[in-house]
Amino acid sequence: MQVKLHSHTPDPEAFMAYVARVSNPANQSNPDHARLLSYCIRRRHWSVFEHASMTVEILTTLDIATQILRHRSFCFQQLSRRYAGEEQSPVQWVMPQLRAPHPKDRQASLDTLPHDVVEHWQGKIQDHLQAAHDLYRQLLAAGVAKECARAVLPQATTTTLYMSGNCRSWIHYIALRSQPGTQAEHRSVALEVQGIFAQVFPVCAGALDALDWAT
After folding, report:
1. pLDDT above 90 covers what percent of the chain?
2. Strand partners, 64
């Protein structure tokens, strides 16, 4: 799992403050934007935060990518194995973590499985993943189109996607997906995003930290 900053609006917080002061042209170029943005966050004036954006590159597994793609306020571009075969992007996969279901919370799991149980079933998974990868290669070698052969690849296969959104969308995403109710693997992505967000939007991140991201 990797998350990297790709790009963002130049001087994004200064620009959002400039836009926010549209009704006060005489003060629009005021360089002191920290108090204004913090005020807008406390008062939930979210439209201000729709005018600056950032794009991150995410390397994750297909199952987690499916969850991420549900956030429809973002724009996405994802590696397509209709076009990218082994030569363009080698197939890799991540061994799934094995946890026990939570007895009451359907959105949670617990790291309580005995070590020998985890070791046994991860050995089975290893064999399954390797067999699926071998079958994929055999299909391609037999002349099967990549768009058909990809169907045998497991959900643990890695994929790369670019995720672009405005500051408001990122605030909502982090506030939601950094919570314990999020699947652990997705939560780790969200926490990486939160660290990047704090670099690009430090004033906003500080104001949200003070509110414990209660948006």
Report:
1. 93
2. none
Instruction: Return the structure tokens found at 20.
Output: 């926010």
User: Judging by DSSP bridges, how do beta strands 75-78 and 158-166 pair with one another?
Assistant: antiparallel
**In contact, 156 and 129? CB cutoff 8 Å:** yes
CA distance 77 to 61: 15
Ramachandran category for residue 76: left, alpha or beta (phi over 0 → left; psi -120 to 50 → alpha): beta
Q: Which CATH class is domain 2-76+157-210?
A: alpha beta
> What are φ and ψ of residue 44, in 5° steps?
60, 40
Give the model confidence (pLDDT) of 131-146 as tens digits: 999 999 999 999 999 9
Cα-to-chain-centroid distance, residue 207: 22
Mean pLDDT score of the chain: 96
Catalytic residue among 81, 150, 168, 177: 177
Residue 193: how many other CB atoms lie within 10 Å: 22
Based on the residue annotation, tell me whether 177 is a catalytic residue of this protein.
Answer: yes
Q: For the chain, what are the domain ranges?
A: 2-76+157-210, 98-152
